[in-house]
Amino acid sequence: MGMGIDRRQFVRGVLTSAVVVGAAGSLRAALAGATTVSGPGPYGALGTADVNGIQLPSGFTSRLLATSGQTVAGTAAVWHDAPDGGACFPIADGGWVYVSNSEVSLAGGGASALRFDSTGEIADAYRILAGTHRNCAGGPTVAGTWLSCEENGSVGQVYECDPRRPGQGVVRPLLGSFNHEAAAEDPTSRTIYLTEDDPAGRLYRFVPTRPGDLTSGQLFAASVANGVVSWIPTSSTSPDRQATTTPFDGGEGLWIDDGTLYLTTKGDRRVWELHLATQTISVLYDAAVTVGAALNAVDNCTVHEPSGDVFVCEDGGNMEVCLITAGTTDRTVAPFMRIVGHDASEWCGVAFSPDHRRLYVSSQRGDDGRGRTYEIRGPFRTAPTPTTTSTTSTTSTTSTTTPVGPIAVTAVATAATWRYHDLGTDLGTTWRSTTYNDTTWKTGTAPLGYGDPVSTIISSGNQPTNRPITAYFRHTFTVTGATPLTDLILRIRRDDGAVIHLDGTELARTNMPTGTITATTRALSSINDAAETTTHTIIIPAARTITPGTHVLAVEVHQYQPSSSDLSFDLTLTGTQLR
């Protein structure tokens, strides 16, 4: 028999092995493994039901966006039945896309998208996947695609979709054939974690041969012993049932935030946290042992990034979306919202907009069998609650407050809008500076290039055997807040090589020679096949930081040879900021 997880081993989330947090560790990481108790939430009590039948804390409002079987307002699209797992993706014009799966059987499933403009109004709706079976949950990738997962027994597959335009997903069979539920990609290792909705289901992870390439790699299943996870190779053609791997009772939601993977299992009504750096696991919340807890049935989950609060949907219970707070030694579970009259439904698809100010969520079957998709707005927290400790003596009482620590910040997102110069002329070095006038350059959404699947096609020149070696790209961005952006990480798709400059100074180079770079300098090697769309991660030295204000990234992409048939480029820049 498989190695089951003994409830006594994990009662109330107490980790059985020590987790050491370094000086750079965030508050959320330091509090991992803390006890979760029932109590009042950070937003206060729920009010009376609004026009949508939703009870929310004071200051929050709901908006009905779409109803299954009805046309989405202002568009020609009919919203799909049985909306389920979802996520949000930024787009270049300042708007965003919310993706929602369709858990319909017999090739009636798939996924659809709502596109919002920069003001939050619906601008479009469309299908991104059709003809699949019971697409339950899924997850976003670092590259900005949506992994839509089939809950289809032993033959369930994962489909990779482009959320930003109508189309059809591509099946990714190496991510396993089983009763899929959710997926989550670790932005650091590019490993993809997957859940299986079965009482004997496993927790899986897919390790790609090349980061971001889902066509080559190895699938593993988790084996848990004394709170530590090891990974056992497994087949991608059938569910794992090895005696050496560990059952998770009905795996559901997955979300990664701040180096922690949050996992829900509906069979035992638990929320787990797996610390990715140490591969140690604990139970954050257990409905069976948390007295008076509001969260009775767990399903999809997400994290509100600024606050670190974990939001968990109920499949059943009394139709609440609950949250588990971050920022206190004893983390509190409390209801955030409740809907009246949808007793035969379930909450699902919980996801925050890119600015974390709007929450999207669906009632899968509504009050009449038709799904409803909603937007929730209000004063979401901007940071975790600081931890306050007091010491008392016979003469005085002192209190100290721990800073809330750094939060993740995306300075430049995937699919950003870039200015580009593709005329094949040598621009020297002045084009890299912040004062350079690039207003005559063309603009386009990344990925940019030619010959490969890209969003913006740039010129490849007029001579197929003598194309320009170098193309130039610039992007202006702003860092808000009062403290510098640190712990910088670049993730770049480049075919073939690239040099990245920040405010006129070189930040990094990849697949390029050392020494002075000119317009005729060739990349070190040719990039071919799947490697052409691989995202390369570059850790920037700690000494490089970005102060609050406006900055310019200037990137030059170089070919290996003038007869190259393709070029592609996209880039993200992330860091952490103390707030």
In short:
With 579 residues, this protein is mostly beta strands. Strands 1, 2, 21, 22, 23 and 24 form a 6-stranded mixed β-sheet that branches. Strands 30, 33, 34, 36, 39 and 41 form a 6-stranded mixed β-sheet that branches. The protein has a 6-stranded antiparallel β-sheet with strand order 32-31-35-40-37-38, with no helix packed on it. The protein is globular.
Describe the structure.
- With 579 residues, this protein is mainly beta.
- The longest helix has 4 residues, at 27-30.
- The chain folds into 2 domains: 7-377, TolB, C-terminal domain (Neuraminidase), CATH 2.120.10.30; 406-578, Jelly Rolls (Sandwich).
- Mean pLDDT is 88; it is low at 1-34 and 387-405.
- A hairpin with a 4-residue loop joins strand 18 and strand 19.
Helix residue percentage: under 10%
CATH topology annotation of the largest domain: Neuraminidase
Calculate the terminal CA-CA distance, rounded to whole Å: 48 Å
Shape: globular
CATH architecture field of the largest domain: 6 Propeller
Structural class: mainly beta
**What is the total number of structural domains?**
2
Mean pLDDT, to the nearest integer, reads 88
- Discrete helix count: 1
Beta-sheet strand percentage?
A: 35-45%
Q: What is the CATH class designation of the largest domain?
A: Mainly Beta
Low-confidence stretches: 1-34, 387-405
Name the CATH superfamily assignment of the largest domain: TolB, C-terminal domain
The number of distinct β-strands equals: 41
Measured on Cα atoms, how large is the radius of gyration? Answer: 24 Å
Largest sheet: 6 strands, mixed
